[in-house]
Amino acid sequence: MKQTPADLEQITATTLGHYNSVAEGFRDGTRDHDVSQNIDALLRHIQGEAPFDILDFGCGPGRDLQTFTRLGHRAVGLDGSQEFARMAREDSGCEVWQQDFLKLDLPAGRFDGIFANAVLFHIPRQELPRVLRQLHGTLKPGGVLFSSNPRGENQEGWNGSRYGAYHDLAAWQGLLIEAGFAELEHYYRPAGLPREQQPWLASVWRKCV
């Protein structure tokens, strides 16, 4: 059933309200998460000479902004949560944009890479093609998009006070190809475990049109 503008406003407000309310605990609980495999996957595929311009899309409290900065890159954060955006600015010293994912205002051709770690699954399926085209547009020619999402069987809905859409590999590939990307690689996380114990689907894509 098609979601109305009022439905989408509720999804955004409720999900962001959750993250604003748990921001401190979320920062403490995720501070030591090791996502180096994901960061390496993005950076490995970016062409040209470093340092790179990176958009950390859904940057949360800024953990990965700090990593990109330590590695010598120019990182900009974006998050819908007011509290996360504040924390990310304070903790990383980077420029951080607070924007609703469903009302993005992104500069054209600005970034070499986009790091979308554990975030795109919050976008309702009907809105995702438009958002992916906006991410495509803010990449430089040949730029790279990394994403990691909880995988599923193409269901979506509420998980407590957070909204999520959970795609399988084939559906995710179709969405990204439709948006103008070519797949570079995909893998499941955490590494080294049986597939049923790997809830995360990570993939890397190049802007090709």
The proportion of strand residues reads: 25-35%
- Described by the principal axes of the CA atoms, the overall outline is globular
* Strand line-up across the major sheet: 3-2-1-4-5-9-8
Oligomer: single chain
Proportion in helices: 25-40%
Largest sheet, if any? 7 strands, mixed
Report the order of strands and helices. HHHEHEHEEHEEEHEE
Mean pLDDT: 95
Q: Got a strand count? A: 9
Unreliable stretches covering 5 or more consecutive residues: none
Q: What Rg is obtained from the alpha carbons, in whole angstroms?
A: 16 Å
Number of continuous helical runs: 7
End-to-end separation in angstroms reads 31 Å
Class by SSE composition: alpha/beta
